[in-house]
Amino acid sequence: MVKFPFILPDATGVFLERPNRFLARVKIRGGKEKGPVEVHVHDPGRLPDLLIPEREVLLRRARNPRLRKTAWDLIAVRKNDHWVLVHSGLHRQIAEMLLAHSLTNPFGPAERLAEPRRGRHRLDFLLTAETGSRIWLEVKGCTLARGDLALFPDAPTARGAGHLRELISLKEEGEGAAVFFLVFRPEARRFAPYREVDPHFADLLKEAVSCGVGVYPFLLEYQPHEGILLYRGLLPLVLC
């Protein structure tokens, strides 16, 4: 287990509704606001077992409120005894922390280039070792679990499929390629593509593994009141 210093929430609240994919209405506890406030939802997934009315949530004040329509960001949702991170804008920061620590970096030291372009897509990182070898890395966040099985995606993802196709193509060209799945469900003990939701993505992930693309499901637990993100290990990958 590795502990990473992480963000502290600015407020707690109660989720009321989600009018659209990027907007939620929340009642802030102990705040000056008299009624519900609109908050930005960074995660474009459906979050079917998380965004349920009356569910407790954590919020963070927007860092650039004058440039935003909303003054708050949705950070995490309480599920049973755990807090589940639902802010996809933090994924790259988390991946950088994992890459910077010797116990969580599966590749070894390398220079990092963020958002390298590949074809029609931008991937999250291009890692270049001192030897000159390269690994193209994509990062995804997983917020859904059924029992002890973490599942991705929770909605069809053409963008995610496109990223996998690029990684497969890179591997076929002799480049290194990998994908991090950041699993924010501490109860999970296994990870799998959610075939019922997106069979095409499941097929592509299976093809990617057969081509040698590295798949790393990191089990992570957010402890907001301590400002800590715990790394609990890599989950076994289940391909179906």
How would you characterize this protein structure?
The protein is an alpha+beta fold and 240 residues long. It has two domains: 2-85, OB fold (Dihydrolipoamide Acetyltransferase, E2P) (Beta Barrel), CATH 2.40.50.580; 88-234, Trna Endonuclease, Chain: A, domain 1 (3-Layer(aba) Sandwich). Helices cover 16% and strands 41% of the residues. The protein contains three helices and 18 strands. The chain has helices at residues 91-100, 158-172, 199-211, and strands at residues 2-5, 11-20, 23-28, 37-40, 56-61, 72-79, 82-85, 111-114, 117-118, 121-122, 125-128, 134-142, 144-146, 149-152, 176-183, 190-193, 214-223, 228-234. Strands 1-18-17-15-12-11-8 form a seven-stranded mixed β-sheet. Strands 4-3-2-5-6-7 form a six-stranded antiparallel β-sheet, with no helix packed on it. Helix 2 (158-172) runs parallel beside helix 3 (199-211). The model has no long low-confidence stretch (mean pLDDT 94). It holds the Pfam family SfsA_N. InterPro entries: SfsA, SfsA_C, SfsA_N. This is Sugar fermentation stimulation protein homolog. It comes from Thermosulfuriphilus ammonigenes.
